[in-house]
Design goal:
Blueprint lengths: L1 H16 L12 H11 L3 E6 L4 H10 L3 H10 L1 E6 L5 H7 L7 E5 L5 E6 L4 H17 L1
Helix pairs in contact: 4-6
């Protein structure tokens, strides 16, 4: 019995530590995300998406889940997903002129856009876009 428990614990620990990290998206409100950005002196990365958008689904499953993407974004940004058709989404889309999906916004804690990218990105291109946004943010 001890061997079975030991094997189970090893398998569980291995599975836990080898899962892809990817981007961790903030789970609070938009205002709470801005407050956290101010507190941590980081910009906010916003994935402005819709549920029916094919490129948005691709990015959610194939780009945002990549370890290197998650490492860069989790260290340098407060990450936030916004469905443009639900809740605060339509007013956000109007305020920030989101007219295509996905729109990827980099916003400072004062709610001003510092960088904008529209359309699907591959992991390396997404990181390059984020690095450009970070330069603008750090230059302030």
């Amino acid at each position: 019995m001890k061997h079975i428990i030991t094997i189970f614990l090893i398998v569980f620990a291995t599975a836990t530590f080898t899962q892809a990290q990817g981007i961790e998206f903030f789970q609070g409100t938009w205002q709470q995300a801005l407050d956290k950005a101010k507190e941590e002196n980081k910009p906010v990365f916003v994935d402005a998406y819709t549920t029916w958008c094919g490129p948005c689904k691709y990015m959610a499953s194939k780009v945002f889940t990549v370890d290197s993407v998650g490492e860069y974004f989790n260290e340098n940004f407060i990450n936030y997903k916004f469905d443009m058709e639900k809740g605060e989404g339509p007013s956000f889309a109007n305020k920030y002129r989101v007219t295509a999906y996905p729109t990827l916004l980099y916003i400072n804690a004062e709610a001003k856009v510092i960088h904008r990218v529209m359309g699907m990105r591959q992991p390396a291109d997404l990181i390059k876009d984020a690095q450009r946004a970070k330069v603008v943010f750090d230059y302030k």
